[in-house]
From TrEMBL, chain A:
UniProt GO molecular function: oxidoreductase activity
Name of the featured protein: Monoamine oxidase
Keyword Aminoacyl-tRNA synthetase annotated: no
Cofactors demanded by this protein: FAD
Domain Amine oxidase, chain residue ranges per copy: 63-489
Species this chain originates from: Marinobacterium nitratireducens
Protein family (similarity comment): Belongs to the flavin monoamine oxidase family.
Pfam assignment, any one: Amino_oxidase
Residues that hold substrate according to the record: 386
Xref: PROSITE patterns: TAT
TrEMBL record, chain B:
Ligand binding (heme c 1): 55, 58-59, 98
This protein's name: Cytochrome c domain-containing protein
Organism: Marinobacterium nitratireducens
Molecular functions per Gene Ontology: electron transfer activity; heme binding; iron ion binding
Keyword Metal-binding: yes
Main location: periplasm
PTM info: Binds 2 heme c groups covalently per subunit.
Length: 495, 218
């Protein structure tokens, strides 16, 4: 029940092919990543010999870890390994193979203006982009109510309030919010505390909660104002570039699905990416050579790039214990952003013929936001939606029916004939993501900010959460990967 | 969304009739839903912004989870809820989602949240599809083991003893397994001791029975 994620009544064969694909997603074109314990006994791979000391071990084959590995590789270094817990690369990006070469994204999917690091990477890897579809009328639903409305590629935000936030964000540096001159004042407040002073009308309130849940990972009452402003700062101090569709961080998609970036990078690295290899314990991080204890034995390296977020770092055992400030940061790092996302697949995007854009905004229902996630040519119709975890049954079939009925109320009875359905809650699927974005609460940066960046011995902290711009996004992941590769190359030079 | 709703309020229903024609009924109902639901929320959990809104995504509206893996909080005894939140914060009960969230709560917020969810009435686990044979076996086991001695009449819970009737199946099973394996420990150690005597099959049957059990009126 809980384990079933996909149903494709008409595409079962395709699905089986997809699962094979997902099992070794980086194997497109037979790149031959080594995976599984079976290959652990071959002692020819770098890092296998206990005496063999690598220059660098990278923990995590998400966008951050693979970007770092790619940079090391481009710099001519071959003495490194990427250790990945799962049987696939991509981390919080994952393609759902719909069939006939079409994909939808299970995790991160959009890029937007100012996200130049991920844009450059896509160009270098020959991955094209296309606009998120929004032309036409959005359906707003609540209770029995239903309204079609053309929002013109926005979420219809009250711009008087948004403009104030944009203005304030100038004073909060994206990469180090705790260094803001206003830190003492603003880090005490939640976004809700601040909005409470802005005379937000009852009609607008749930809109703010939904917007903050989607972008910040929690409703307004537990979202830190200082952190939220740092996110707007990333978006060039322009609220609309953060939280809208057209010309915004939800405006552009990657052809072939976002996971393709990671798959392509891993393809070049071959068996320097080791799958199904979770790191459980790290010892001697304060000495010359660090030992990583994995499910496939020990790996020793001079420098380690930790390309996983702090709450994941907290799942690893350290010997000796990490410095108190870093340990406290990891223990307090929020991991409560709901991350249940679905895809409903139709033979064509039938809503477009009715002038509808395939988007739904729903008040008090299981859907937070649904949007048209069809492939570039609109050859088939795909709807993705962020789901309120516990407000939709977990049973796969019941969930599918419930959503189908809502879509039929929104767009007509054609919605009752989907060809596939996919449902994944990242918080429950496996222990290797835990959450979506980091919902940094009030007070967090003032207490823990200084512990985010400084390396501990030979451990270098990476992953999107450490990025100086667009932390939390795919772009931030790429930036943090570049940054940590530079750091370890310099540290090796000094050693 | 926000803009258009403001527009609705300002322009008034009559003017909108002209713009929306046959969609007017849908619009009227939407406006009506917004008005009644914001009044209901105000009465139920105070003025916006609401702390409880940070919980409903994973625990359901008013603490009624429709998901077998995320526990319902509705109708749990306030002392139990408060002590679980404190134990998540201290790390005595470990969970990567709840730990850091509970650390952000003040004692006042803990009391507010515990009180709020305890006030909501428990409802049946409607989306669970029980298997009759497992339910029967679970019922028998619960009677022999005397679960009700601590968890109260009809397993509705009281004080530090949680309500079990109608809780999510996957959640119940995960907790029984966690007690049995020692990854969750209760302060007195009684639940751990009880779970340790239950076989994996027993735990499955009990979770099944409890999830299917309709909460009694209290
Ligand atoms: C549902 C959802 C929607 C999102 N939408 C967007 C979006 O539209 N746009 C956007 O820019 N961003 C989005 N994001 C965020 C984006 O996906 C992430 O910011 C980005 O992918 C993070 O990359 P990363 O490499 O830093 O971390 P991750 O992708 O988390 O990679 C970490 C890797 O480390 C592995 N790992 C963990 N622990 C261990 C261990 N102990 N040993 C070995 N390996 C380990 C994990 O398996 C994983 O592969 C979304 C995320 C989710 C979940």
């Amino acid at each position: 029940m809980a384990g079933k994620r996909t149903s494709t009544p008409y595409l079962d064969l395709k699905r089986r092919q997809m699962l094979k694909f997902a099992g070794a997603s980086a194997a497109i074109g037979g790149f031959g990543l080594c995976s599984g314990l079976a290959s652990a006994s071959e002692s020819t791979r770098p890092g296998d010999d206990a005496e063999d000391v690598l220059d660098v071990a990278i923990i995590g084959a998400g966008l951050a870890g693979l970007t770092a590995a790619r940079d090391l590789h481009l710099a001519g270094n071959r003495s490194f390994l990427v250790l990945e817990a799962r049987d696939r690369v991509g981390g919080r990006t994952l393609n759902f193979e719909v069939g006939d070469g079409h994909v939808s994204e299970v995790g991160g999917q959009w890029i937007g203006p100012g996200q130049t690091a991920v844009q450059d990477l896509a160009r270098q890897l020959d991955v094209g982009t296309f606009p998120q579809f929004y032309e036409g009328r959005t359906v707003v639903m609540g209770g029995d109510g239903r309204l079609e409305y053309d929002l013109g590629g926005t979420f219809g935000t009250d711009m008087t309030i948004a403009d104030k936030l944009s203005e304030m964000s100038h004073e909060v540096p994206s990469g180090a919010p705790w260094q803001s001159p206003k830190a003492a004042e603003w880090d005490r407040l939640s976004v809700g505390d601040w909005l409470a002073t802005q005379n937000v009308q009852p009609e607008d309130q749930s809109g703010w909660d939904a917007a903050l849940t989607l972008t910040g990972g929690v409703s307004v009452s537990k979202m830190g104002l200082l952190h939220y402003l740092s996110m707007i700062n990333s978006a060039d101090c322009d609220y609309e570039k953060l939280d809208s569709i057209k010309d915004s961080a939800q405006g552009t998609r990657l052809i072939g699905g976002s996971q393709i970036l990671s798959s392509k990078m891993a393809g070049v690295l071959g068996d320097q990416v080791r799958l199904q290899c979770p790191v459980r314990r790290i010892s001697g991080w304060d000495g010359e050579v660090v030992t990583l204890h994995t499910d496939q034995g020990r790996v020793r390296a001079r420098k380690v790039i930790m390309a996983i977020h702090p709450a994941l770092c907290n799942q690893i055992e350290y010997e000796p214990a990490l410095p108190a400030a870093r340990a406290a940061l990891q223990r307090a790092w929020p991991a409560h952003s709901p991350a249940r996302k679905i895809a409903m697949v139709y033979s064509r995007p039938f809503w477009r013929e009715k002038g509808l854009n395939g988007h739904i905004l729903m008040l008090d229902g299981p859907i937070i936001w649904a949007w048209d996630n069809s492939p570039p040519d609109g050859e088939i119709g795909i709807v993705n939606a962020f789901i309120s975890n516990a407000n939709l049954p977990s049973d796969h079939e019941t969930a599918r029916r419930t959503l189908m009925d809502i879509f039929a109320r929104a767009w007509g009875d054609e919605a009752l004939q989907p060809v596939a359905y996919h449902d994944q809650d990242w918080g429950r699927h496996d222990p290797w993501s835990l959450t979506c974005v980091s919902a940094i609460p009030p007070g967090f940066w003032s207490t823990h900010g200084e512990a985010l960046h400084p390396p501990c011995g030979n451990l270098f902290w990476s992953g999107t959460e450490t990025a100086d711009i667009w932390a939390g996004y795919m772009d931030g992941a790429v930036r943090s990967g570049h940054q940590s590769a530079l750091q370890v190359l310099n540290a090796l030079r000094q050693a | 969304m926000k803009k258009l709703i403001v527009l609705g309020v300002v322009a008034g229903f009559v003017a909108l009739l002209a713009c929306y024609g046959r969609d007017a009924l849908g619009l009227y109902r939407l406006m009506d839903h917004i008005a009644t639901s914001s009044e209901a929320k105000e009465a139920d959990s105070g003025s916006w912004p609401r702390l409880t809104d940070a919980c409903i995504g994973c625990h359901g509206r008013q603490g009624h989870s429709l998901h077998q893996g995320y526990p319902s909080l509705a109708g749990q005894p306030a002392p139990y809820l408060a002590s679980q939140l404190r134990r998540f914060a201290s790390g005595e009960r470990s969970n990567p989602n709840m730990g850091p969230l509970a650390m952000t709560l003040t004692e006042y917020e803990i009391q507010q949240l515990a009180g709020y969810f305890a006030r909501q009435s428990a409802i049946g686990n409607g989306s669970f599809k029980p298997e009759a044979a497992l339910v029967a076996r679970g019922e028998q086991l619960a009677a022999t083991a005397g679960c009700a001695a601590c968890h109260g009449d009809n397993l509705m819970g009281h004080d530090q003893f949680p309500r079990l009737a109608g809780q999510g199946h996957d959640y119940l099973l995960a907790q029984l397994n966690a007690f049995a394996q020692g990854s969750r420990k209760d302060p007195g150690g009684v639940m751990s001791a009880i779970a340790a005597t239950l076989s994996a099959d027993d735990r499955r049957a009990l979770a099944h029975y409890l999830a299917a059990l309709a909460p009694a009126e209290n």
